[in-house]
């Protein structure tokens, strides 16, 4: 039987849940006051509540579905970048030239916009940067530049997917490592790691770091353009507000990175070699509503197995194959901000994971400390 190639709008519509944040951002920008709370309320608490009501989605889609059948699934990722840019820069123009909001109101508003650009924009950028289509990759670059985190594309593609759950990957959180310590480590190591990866890739081709093929030239140009636009639209206040939403968005992204691989280590095989990445090296969540909002990012094991697989086709795994989170990402990132609560909930799960998959390893100290050797041939 030939697969159905008809675009499936009803199946795609739940994944358009993110668009609800756009009118909320407009209302918060115009009305001021406490309206900004509707943005984190929608992204974090409403979807977590819906998870409790709707439960999990354990069915797997047909991975052979053609691209034509995914038209409406792709559409939301393609329209989001201009919407996000309109929200950020429209709000900067409005609050600095039209509205009479207080400083605290503006700080709250751009916190909410940072939730929008971090919770949704970063996830959509992640989906787009994995695709082969040049337009989609450019849209990913625009989204990342709008939060001043362009190096994430290089770090994610060249480092994270190759060396996840090894010491080479900065965003693989270690066992017992609190989020706040992890966050500063990633901010310190991520940009230099990405630059080193691009430099080494160019060197293998016999090209200097200054070669025009180095994407850091594009990253710098796009980020500079975003900063200049914020300054032109809103002056120095507009620039400060832009930087604030970017900081919130980066915090949101790295909270998610922290959750995705916390305490999960690939087995060291000696002589700089590690086992291949397997489904067991990512935390998964099958919660329905948060997977709609985050376009199946929580089916993370399958994403690492097949990085260019589009989000509607990602597969879920049973607990026999991959570890499962007790709650969706929004609730888990809340716990991550309070390390004692996080450890109480997650450390027993990591220890159970170790007993289940690696009973032969008796000393986890080097894994916990990140003391194992770097993978050989790592960029």
UniProtKB/TrEMBL annotation:
Compartment list: Cell inner membrane
Assigned keywords, A-Z: Cell inner membrane, Cell membrane, Iron, Membrane, Metal-binding, Monooxygenase, Oxidoreductase, Transmembrane, Transmembrane helix
Highest taxon above the source species: Bacteria
Family statement: Belongs to the fatty acid desaturase type 1 family. AlkB subfamily.
Membrane spanning stretches: 12-28, 75-96, 102-125, 219-244
Record-level GO BP terms: lipid metabolic process
Gene Ontology cellular component annotations, sorted alphabetically: plasma membrane
GO molecular function, one term: monooxygenase activity
Protein name from the UniProt record: Alkane 1-monooxygenase
UniProt cross-references to InterPro entries, sorted A to Z: AlkB/XylM, FA_desaturase_dom
Pfam families reported for this sequence: FA_desaturase
Lineage of origin: Bacteria, Pseudomonadati, Pseudomonadota, Alphaproteobacteria, Rhodobacterales
Residue ranges of domain Fatty acid desaturase in the record: 103-334
Major subcellular site: membrane
Source organism (scientific name): Paracoccus tegillarcae
Protein's membrane topology: Multi-pass membrane protein
Coiled-coil zones: none
């Amino acid at each position: 039987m030939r697969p159905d190639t008809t675009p499936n709008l009803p199946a795609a519509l739940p994944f358009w849940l993110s668009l609800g944040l756009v009118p909320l951002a407009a209302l918060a920008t115009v009305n001021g006051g406490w309206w900004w709370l509707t943005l984190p309320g929608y992204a974090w608490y409403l979807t977590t509540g819906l998870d409790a009501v709707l439960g999990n989605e354990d069915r797997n889609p047909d991975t052979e579905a053609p691209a034509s059948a995914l038209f409406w699934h792709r559409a939301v990722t393609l329209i989001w970048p201009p919407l996000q840019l309109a929200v950020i820069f429209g709000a900067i123009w409005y609050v600095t030239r039209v509205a009479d909001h207080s400083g605290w109101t503006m700080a709250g508003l751009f916190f909410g916009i940072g939730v929008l650009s971090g919770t949704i924009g970063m996830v959509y950028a992640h989906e787009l940067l994995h695709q082969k289509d040049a337009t989609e990759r450019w849209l990913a670059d625009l989204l990342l530049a709008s939060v001043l985190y362009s190096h994430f594309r290089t770090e994610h593609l060249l480092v994270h997917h190759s060396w996840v759950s090894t010491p080479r990957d900065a965003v693989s959180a270690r066992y017992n490592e609190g989020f706040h310590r992890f966050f500063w480590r990633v901010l310190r190591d991520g940009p230099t790691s990405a630059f080193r990866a691009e430099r080494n890739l160019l060197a293998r081709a016999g090209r200097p770091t200054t070669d025009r093929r180095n994407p850091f030239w594009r990253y710098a140009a796009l980020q500079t353009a975003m900063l200049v636009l914020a300054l032109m639209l809103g002056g120095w206040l507009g620039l400060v507000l832009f930087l604030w939403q970017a900081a919130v968005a980066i915090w949101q992204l790295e909270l998610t990175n922290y959750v995705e691989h916390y305490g999960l280590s690939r087995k060291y095989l000696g002589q700089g070699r590690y086992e291949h990445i397997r489904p067991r090296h990512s935390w998964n969540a099958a919660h329905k509503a948060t997977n709609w909002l985050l376009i199946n990012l929580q089916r993370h094991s399958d994403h690492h197995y097949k990085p260019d697989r589009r989000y509607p086709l990602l597969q879920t795994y049973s607990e026999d194959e991959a570890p499962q989170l007790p709650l969706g990402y929004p609730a888990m990132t809340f716990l991550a901000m309070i390390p004692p609560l996080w450890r109480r909930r997650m450390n027993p799960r990591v220890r159970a994971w170790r007993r289940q998959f690696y009973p032969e390893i008796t000393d986890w100290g080097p894994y916990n400390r990140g003391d194992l050797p770097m993978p050989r041939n790592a960029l």
